[in-house]
Structures are given as C-alpha cells and as structure tokens.
Amino acid sequence: MGDRFTLTSRISLHDVFNVFMMNIPLFPLTVFLLPQGITRLRIFEPKYLKMVSLAMKQQGFAIVYDNSKGDNEDYQWASWVDIIDFNQDNDGVLTIDVQCQSLVHLTNISTDEQQLRYADATPFRHWSGMKHDQVTRQLATSLQQMFEKQEELSGLYQNKFINSPCWVVSRWVELLPINYQVKQLFAEKNSYVEAKKLLARLILNAN
What we know:
The protein is built from 6 helices and 7 strands, in the order βββαββββααααα. By secondary structure, the chain is an alpha+beta fold. The chain has a 5-stranded mixed barrel with strand order 2-4-5-6-7. A hairpin with a 5-residue loop joins strand 6 (94-111) and strand 7 (117-124). Helix 2 (134-149) packs across helix 6 (192-203). The protein starts with a strand and ends with a helix.
C-alpha cells in the first residue's frame, strides 16, 4: 500500500448554497449518496483519472446514478462530492474518499474527446432543522451499533453526527439495500418524514 493523504474539504458546507452554478465532471456509479455521506472509490480508467485531477483543482465532481443505459436525459440530479482523502496503491490503482457536499440539479450535459461527461450543476437544499424523536433516537442507536461492527465503514466517518436526526436518517437510506427507484424519492427536500417512516418499518419493525 502507498502513503495515504488526508485532505481538508475545500468546500465549506456553510457556503454550499452561495454557489449558483458550476460546470463539473460526472461519474456514473451505482452509488446513492446524500449530503455529508462518504464513500470510497477506486479510480483506474484514464478519463476518470482526468476527472480526479480536474476535481482537485476546481470544484469536485458529481456522482450520477448509472442506469446502464447511457441516456444523458436521465441525469437530472446528482451528488456533488469533494475529495477528502486519497491513496495510491502499489499496483497503481488510485483510491479516493469523497464526501457529498450537496445534491445538485444537472443541465447542459456534454461529453469531451475522452468520453468524460460534464454538466452545469446547481445545488439545492435537502433536509435540515429536524429534532430527534423516539424513532430517530432508536435509529441512531442502531446506526452506532453498525459502526461498531463495521470498522471499514466507521473509518470513513471521522466525525459521526449521531445527534443529528437528518444525518442518521440519511446514512441509513444510503446503507440499506433499497431499490434505487425508492431511494431517489428521498432526494426531495420534503421527503424526510417518509424516509423516517420507511426506516422505522425496515429497521425497528414499527408499523
């Protein structure tokens, strides 16, 4: 293994919505990420190595859910991420940890000579201002127990905002093997209550 480098996010969460529009690369993946969510990616295709280089110099990139059809018109929103950690393996494979700064609406998708896609991305608000209740406290306890059992997952989150119900519900939505067609409903700003109800049924066996 090579040396691991940890980065401080160059994008302040407080300043996310001061960004009006930006043109950023797109990375199609079967990954669903909500604000403050973190995932680890392996990068080896030349066009995505280029994407990482651009992202480090500019404003990150966007993860779009890959429906395997390659239809540009399906990419209406994405998870705008910043690179917070990276590692170069001895076999030459780049590993990066990325954190979602915001969800973004996508327009004007284009493709360069390497078939790397770009889009104009505009941040939009997600859940905020919620308070813990009996359900979310139980979900928080269950999430903490999962972190204790899964060291690799826990290692991604140096800061765990268990006291934030929005953070707890978001992490559960990401982690559970729910169909994407259901998950994408929870990208909407007003979907918090429905997400909490679904998690209560699936995790807490509540009616």
